[in-house]
Design brief:
By secondary structure, this protein is α/β, with parallel strands linked by helices. 33% of the residues lie in helices and 14% in strands. It is built from 14 helices and 12 strands. The strands form 3 sheets. Strands 3-4-5-6-7-8-9-12 form an 8-stranded parallel β-barrel, surrounded by 5 helices. Strands 1-2 form a two-stranded parallel sheet. Strands 10-11 form a two-stranded antiparallel ribbon. β5, α6 and β6 form a beta-alpha-beta unit. α9 packs across α11.
């Protein structure tokens, strides 16, 4: 099962386009040259996740964490595949993230019996450990070719409905990350990023009657189905910036209903930076160019303030003042020596983000979720205790305030 859970997604911002299961969630250079964190604009609106008629962005962020029953600080999370190490190192994350992969035969509904019981068992395990469950719905796997195929979409919507039905039966709220990669491939489909011009099978679903049979309607249906079946579910969309600016992608994602979600999923990175630096590269780190190890002094690009500004600019373009969750943050250990070896590639996201978590709180982040992006990447078992030490120090400081 672990290999399935690590199969992950492609995408993220900038750089070369993601490559589905082989590529996973990258981040490119983003907005260049920023020396500040940037402040996203908080819109007003009446959606369940955004700011309601004058509610401040800070209030929206605090309200979401309150719904989760967690302390009013920036939360942290880990991937399900690290559970044994969480227990052995006495790490208690606020959130545990799990993939739901594929559509059709031998996909996530069949992982346990009866169909879909994987969701129930996983959520019960997470609840017993004191963590909120986050499910990453990855049924499309970034593939646009089947969105207008009647047989495929019938299975797709049936599985999505099953997910929501099972989540509705759970005790307490659940976070859902809706279809990473897909939105990046959708943006690349047309130079104008117009999701209303891409055909899809949507309005034959009872929960989505009246929505357009387009990719825009597809995204809106994901939200609308969830609202009707599992009203306690909190949903978020992960934008990809492979082929557009933050403003352009914000406009696309408004069309697909991302402004009606409960939060924004900021795709932090790809694999450990060092995996892209070695020669030869392992198979799971192919086909990217650029600089991968971010400048922690934030003087040269790419750096952490670049990525903060990119997602803040997107948040402003999306409008509605949604809180941010940073997702799939790699777990490598800082080093002045490029590269590394399998399971020990260098990276500095954990070190920077846990030491500087207030920067993320200041731009309306409510959570940062860390997890390895492939079987050869650094994990809790191979990071020399880095995550346990830094997360412990973070909690001892009282955490980062929500704004």
């Amino acid at each position: 099962m672990l290999s399935v859970l690590l199969s992950g997604c492609g995408g993220g911002g900038g750089g070369n386009q993601g490559s589905g299961l082989a590529g996973l969630f990258g981040l490119g250079n983003g907005s260049q040259g920023s020396n500040g964190t940037g402040q996203g604009g908080g819109g007003t609106g009446g959606t369940s996740g955004g700011t309601d008629g004058g509610t401040s962005p800070a209030a929206a962020t605090i309200a979401l964490v309150t719904k989760l029953g967690k302390p009013a600080r920036v939360l942290f999370g880990l991937g399900l595949g690290e559970m044994d190490q969480m227990k052995s190192q006495n790490i208690h994350p606020d959130i545990i993230d799990t993939y739901l992969v594929g559509t059709g035969e031998n996909t996530w509904p069949s992982w346990n019996s009866p169909d879909g019981a994987f969701i129930t068992y996983t959520a019960q395990t997470n609840q017993a450990y004191g963590a909120i469950s986050m499910f990453t719905l990855y049924q499309m796997q970034g593939d646009l070719s089947r969105i207008n195929d009647a047989a495929f979409m019938s299975k797709y919507w049936g599985q999505t409905r099953l997910m929501y039905q099972l989540i509705a039966e759970l005790r307490g709220p659940v976070l859902i990350n809706l279809e990473p990669d897909f939105w990046g491939f959708l943006a690349a489909k047309r130079s104008d990023h117009d999701a209303t011009q891409v055909p899809a099978r949507v309005n034959n679903q009872p929960e989505c009657a009246g929505l357009p049979d387009t990719a825009a309607g597809f995204g809106q249906c994901l939200v609308q189905m969830g609202r009707q079946i599992a009203p306690k579910a909190l949903v978020g969309f992960p934008p990809s910036f492979w082929s557009g600016t933050a403003a352009e992608i914000g406009a696309q994602m408004r069309a697909v209903g991302a402004d009606k979600a409960d939060f924004i999923v900021a795709q932090t990175s790809d694999r450990d930076a060092g995996c892209w630096e070695v020669t030869p590269r392992p198979e799971e780190c192919k086909d990217r160019t650029g600089t991968f190890y971010w400048d922690a002094s934030n003087k040269t690009s790419p750096n952490f303030h670049d990525s903060q500004k990119q997602i803040s600019d997107y948040r402003a373009a999306l409008g509605n003042g949604l809180p941010i969750l940073w997702w799939q943050t790699p777990m490598g250990v800082p080093s002045d020596t490029p590269g590394g070896t399998d399971l020990h590639y260098r990276d500095n996201h954990v070190d920077y983000m846990l030491r500087n978590a207030q920067e993320y709180g200041d731009i309306h982040t409510f959570a940062i979720v860390f997890s390895r992006g492939g079987s050869l990447q650094t994990s809790l078992a191979t990071d020399g205790g880095q995550f346990a030490r830094l997360s412990g120090q973070y909690l001892a400081r009282g955490g980062a305030a929500l704004k």
